[in-house]
Amino acid sequence: MTSQPPSTASYVLLTERQGLEQLELALGGTMGTAFQKAIDTILNMQGRLIITGMGKSGHIGRKINATLASTGTTSLFLHPAEAAHGDLGMLGKEDVVLYLSNSGETSELAPVLLHAQRLGLQQIAFTSCETSTLARSVQIPLILPQAQEACPMGLAPTTSCLLQLALGDALAITLLERRNFSSDDFGTLHPAGQLGAQLRPVSDLMHQGNSLPLGQPNMSLRAVILEITRKSFGCIGILDHDGRLAGLISDGDLRRALERDLDNTFACDIMNPTPLTTTAETLAKDVRRLMNDRQVPVTSLFIVDEDQRPIGILHLHDLIRAGLA
Predict the structure, then answer these.
(1) What are the strands, taking DSSP E only, across the chain?
(2) Which of 43, 226, 277, 306 is the most buried (most CB within 10 A)?
(3) Is residue 189 part of a domain?
(4) How many separate domains does the chain show?
(5) How buried is residue 289: exposed, middle or buried, by Cβ count under 10 Å (0-12/13-18/19+)?
(6) Helices then strands (H, E): number in the chain?
(7) Whole-angstrom Cα distance, residue 283 to residue 72?
(8) Are the C-beta atoms of 94 and 46 separated by less than 8 Å?
(9) Total-model pTM
(10) 60-66: long-range contacts at Cβ-Cβ below 8 A with a sequence spacing of 24 or more?
């Protein structure tokens, strides 16, 4: 029997979901024009997007900054309390400022607001109060719905933070699409961790040169066994007279052929003439899928050039070591 979630937890999720539905309606209606103006302003800026907010809004601002920076928008987070102690120098004349304040009356934002006005910067705000000081002071106020907080006392920022975060994601992904930001661009900005590994080209992981297990069609089965054993990839690529990959012999092919005469059975007799291959530009994540999607999973894969000449080999263990288990 499935246990039911606590009623309080269900209430929180329901309340926050309703807030998101209100935001979706607003974005498709009254907020839509301001949102498009914000997108155009950020796309056309010559400097950076400076994001600032205090308290919980500041935490959300840091996450929005991280998402924007990783998806092609040059941005940084400015802590408003530090701004009045010298960090206002982070603002340049080509920058755009994005403020986060649910009430629109956060006093710590005042120094940033005044300095940005002195510099003549374009300014955007996420706030739920249309008549607030912040909303009236910026050129592009994005007015969030005054959705009910999930806190039963209405005090802890919950739904309001979620709406800021969701609107930040909407901003970042719209900018990503408008810039035609690609998976290659994303990989350039995420070189570490599993995500970075997935977006690396297979040329970064493959073995090359003398590491490749290669042979000729007229090799005896005994010689094939020795080459597979020496190179430890569990296979051997068979080349034609022009150096193109003509076939492949795997450990499985070898086991099935062991009853034959080892000296009078040749590579061409047992090789697979249509081996699975890929190119050096293929992303590691796509190679993993290519190897796993076969009816019999592939453990080693040759990388070939445009003329089908092998230039590298990749083993499943290489993907595991790169974090793509």
Answers:
(1) 49-53, 75-77, 96-100, 122-127, 140-143, 214-215, 235-239, 245-250, 277-278, 300-304, 310-315
(2) 277
(3) no
(4) 2
(5) exposed
(6) 14, 11
(7) 20
(8) yes
(9) 0.61
(10) 60/100, 60/161, 60/164, 60/165, 60/168, 61/98, 61/100, 61/164, 63/165, 63/168, 64/98, 64/100, 64/164, 64/165, 64/168, 64/169, 64/171, 64/172
Alpha-helical segments (H) within 199-311: 221-231, 251-256, 267-270, 284-292
Predicted local confidence at residue 70, as pLDDT: 83
Tens of pLDDT, residue by residue over 301-323, are: 999 999 999 999 998 888 877 77
* Whether the predicted pLDDT of 264 surpasses 80: yes
Looking at the structure, tell me whether residues 135 and 228 fall in a common domain.
no
Q: What tokens were used for 209? A: 């040169």
Q: What is the pLDDT of residues 175-220, one digit of tens each?
A: 998 888 766 666 655 555 555 666 678 888 899 999 999 999 999 8
Q: Is residue 154 part of a domain?
A: yes
Asked if residue 293 is part of any domain, the answer here is yes
CATH number of the domain to which 60 belongs: 3.40.50.10490
